[in-house]
Amino acid sequence: MDAIILQTLNGLDKGSAYALIALGLTLIFGTLGVVNFAHGALFMIGSFCAVTLSRILSYSYEIVDDTRTDFLGNPMKVDIPYVHSWFGESAGQTIIDWSVPLAILFAIPIMLFVGYVMERGLIKHFYKRPHADQILVTFGLAIVLQEVVKQIYGANPIPTPAPPAFTGSLDFGVWLGFDPNTIIYPYWRLVYFFFSAIVIAAVFAFLQFTTFGMVVRAGMADRETVGLLGIDIDKRFTMMFGIAAAVAGLAGVMYTPINSPNYHMGMDFLVLSFVVVVVGGMGSLPGAVLAGFLLGILQSFASMNWIKDILPGIDQIIIYLVAIAILLTRPRGLMGRKGVMED
Question: Transmembrane residues, as ranges (predicted)?
Fold first, then answer.
């Protein structure tokens, strides 16, 4: 039982990332009809927003500390972060330690801007082009963004720790009546799961209960009729592209303590996220979220040692096997809409 609970937690952790990225992908496809192979790059850019803010907050100046000496007896030179001078040593260090959560505020306007520029500068020219053209151009864009990040930040992963309050692990088993140290799970992975749930709920609430969201949903169902009502649906869809980019960016920001940012992390998640979207059903937001968590849990259970002993490498292909099985029996995916990607 303890192994089942632990693997379920691991699955929810993986599924959170899959669901957030797939949600943004589905928002773009559902509103604009564009297959965006650059969406993984948006996840990567979000991660490097956290890295950038951490570096900005750690900028320092050098002073001579007469109270400390080196091995020759000379006063030592020490680096003092600017935030220590501005807010005091204690408050300044707290700001530095909490750079990842603070990067949420830093990343939102950046990701909205990146999404706007991407849509207006490139994507809008491919709305009426075949999906193959869209895939090629957005995949090329993803490679360009990847190389730009590699040039600026280097090829090596950049560790970006979680706040000290969340660097340990929770004895989760005690809460469920197990013996101490039976089920130990990292705090930050739990934080990531709850953060993902909040973002997903916020996106659905925005689409369901706001006037803007209702117009967008109407436009997704019948774009031409909404346009005849005098509503600038193209402008709203552009804003939805920015929101989708922000969702992917936030997923990347909060994922940095789990997986150190590197220039190819977007590609690592790209294929998996598209499999999630296809399994959930192209254009279905609930399907994308459901498939994300489902495939994350299945992949987690497939990584158990006794299963890999029986079926070596099954954890690497389980998602694709499930995708094949679902698409053979239900070609539209779990919750796909009739007519989507069937032309």
Answer: 16-35, 42-61, 98-118, 190-216, 236-257, 269-298, 310-328
